[in-house]
Amino acid sequence: MKLVFILPLLLLSAGAFAQQQKADSTANAVAAKTVKEDFRDDWADLHHYAAENKALAPAAASEKRVVFLGSSIFEFWKTRMPEYFNNKAYIDRGISGQISPQLLIRFRQDVIDLKPKAVIILAGSNDLAGTTGHVSIESIMNNVKSMAELAKTNHIKIILCQYLPISEYSWRKELKPADKIIALNKAIKNYGNENGFTVLDYFSPLVDSRNGQRAELTIDGVHPNAAGYKIMAKVTDEAIAKTLK
């Protein structure tokens, strides 16, 4: 008689246990999907453009693809003057806040692997702004030179940018970057001329009497507005045409 009562209880217990296991499994799967991936080891933010790079069609033999490698100046260009990158072989790979060693780490993924005809390298301002550590003109130039050498080895033409004028960083008002920007630009120009690279001057068309950006061309003294980007577009197109002729 006891077995008659025990058997149904065992069956009920087994069923409840199976349902609980199924519920736990489902909950774990949902939790796994909602856990945010940890990118703390990706200091150079390689994942930033990984999906876009993967989706990018291979460059056609006749395509004059140009990669724009830099920080916020280039990244914001896409939003403040998006038409500049429409229906052209111009690929923007700017990431806000990046310093020159981060650009160097990204160079293979975000430049070489995209098979461009030319690369435009804009680097140095965030280094000088003291975003991280203590930086010298020499250390910035070492990273720029390494990027240029990588490009040259991979048959990519090089356009080096003289940086935009900046007299003050809104987030670090104690710094006086104008003279350092000028010194960096001189080093970039000398290196570019010595090696036969195109030097793209973003400084001269935007500068005011204080060696900062003209007020009507900037939103904060560091980043251009739409009018500033329009001027940059003109000199950039001229530099690209000269480089790829």
TrEMBL record:
Coiled coil: none annotated. The keyword Signal applies. GO terms for molecular function: phosphatidylcholine lysophospholipase activity. It comes from the Bacteria. Keywords: Signal. Residues 77-231 form the SGNH hydrolase-type esterase domain. Gene3D superfamilies: SGNH hydrolase (3.40.50.1110). Transmembrane segments: none annotated. Residues 1-18 form the signal peptide. This is Lysophospholipase L1. It comes from Mucilaginibacter pineti.
